[in-house]
């Protein structure tokens, strides 16, 4: 059974702090990893993708991947109230490269 | 460039009624998907179409049918709606084989079955 697990939260951090979001996956042959942000009532939007072990930085966002531990994380530095949303971890695997989503972590950044 | 367009955005049905959710993309993508999203459940794949002329079941296909009308359009049909199908439905697309796997989503269709 392919699974993607996330802490459901909610996670609250003060403005300016670092928010850390975690995700584990069960399919060892997973190839691509994504973080989507979803504001309430809106559709998911891609914010980060990562394909190889290590860190990938894009502005205030850093994605970290450890395939041996089957673990992917998202760090948000200098968190802003506009970062308040649900963050979905998604993992692509198999010949059809289907995306399997976690249940999401709700983040609230407090002013 | 509209991306992925879904209609309708909101719909209320009575148990047993039927309806079709429409999805169209203008990005020349090969693969299209229908997901449903329920509170605390994340996104679950209903059906997908890897390319024009093909469709396959996803994780939760029961109670649904799909049609890949052409490369642009992928519709989802509920033949006899049930309250358990109350959900938010998202259509998504991606270029296809050899791409990164990133999905592009429509705005969602909010369905309530009474």
How would you portray this structure in words?
The complex is a heterodimer of chains A (111) and B (114). Chain A has 111 residues and is an all-beta fold. In chain A, strands 2, 4, 5, 9, 10 and 11 form a 6-stranded mixed sheet that branches. In chain A, β9 and β10 form a beta hairpin. The termini of chain A are far apart. In chain A, 37% of the residues are buried. Chain B is globular and about 40 Å long. With 114 residues, chain B is mainly beta. The termini of chain B are far apart. At the A-B interface, β5, β9 and β10 of A face β5 of B.
Which helices and strands appear, and what pairs or packs with what?
The complex is a heterodimer of chains A (111) and B (114).
Chain A: E1 4-6, E2 11-14, E3 19-25, E4 32-38, E5 45-50, E6 54-58, E7 61-66, E8 71-76, E9 85-93, E10 98-101, E11 105-110
Parallel strand pairs in A: 2-11
Antiparallel strand pairs in A: 1-3, 3-8, 4-5, 4-9, 6-7, 7-8, 9-10, 9-11
Chain B: E1 4-7, E2 10-13, E3 19-25, E4 31-38, E5 42-49, E6 56-57, E7 64-68, E8 74-78, E9 87-94, E10 104-105, E11 109-113
Parallel strand pairs in B: 2-11
Antiparallel strand pairs in B: 1-3, 3-8, 4-5, 4-9, 5-6, 7-8, 9-10, 9-11
- The proportion of residues in beta strands of chain B is over 45%
Q: What is the count of helical runs of chain A?
A: 0
Number of strands of chain B: 11
Radius of gyration of chain A: 13 Å
- Rg of chain B, Å, rounded: 13 Å
Helix content percent band of chain B:
under 10%
Can you tell me the residue ranges of chain B where pLDDT is under 50 for at least 5 consecutive residues?
none
CA(first)-CA(last) distance of chain B: 36 Å
| Average pLDDT over all residues of chain A | 91
Figure out the total of helices of chain B: 0
Succession of helices and strands of chain A: EEEEEEEEEEE
- State the major sheet of chain B: 7 strands, mixed
Could you state the order of secondary-structure elements of chain B as H and E? Answer: EEEEEEEEEEE
Computed structural class of chain A? mainly beta
Shape category of chain B: globular
